[in-house]
Known about the structure:
Blueprint: H1 7-10, H2 28-31, H3 34-41, H4 56-69, H5 73-83, H6 85-95
Amino acid sequence: MNCLVCYKHCRHKNSCAGCFNSDVGKPEHCRKCSIKDCIMGKGLRYCFECPDYPCKLIKNLEKSYNKRYQASLMENSGFVCQHGLEKFMEQQKRKYTCPQCGGIVSIHDRVCSECQESL
């Protein structure tokens, strides 16, 4: 997948097991994720490893994230390719850590997973 970590995976209470683990307890849209199915079916870990990258699925998601969250999944993938996952995760941690409590701020609704503060 593009190297995004769902904030539901990171919260302390009722955390998700992550995209590549069991579907038990996941919302339907996560269980039926065509991007996850595609990369798992190809035995890849990241979309950018695929010779078809960026495919229609990624281009559509990119357009949505650009518009809704002012974020580029393709730029994030490029950063991971150039600098590695560890540096990317450090960058994201700084960007999405709640200044109030240290929880994880969701890119989707800008709400902290722990204190529920809207940022």
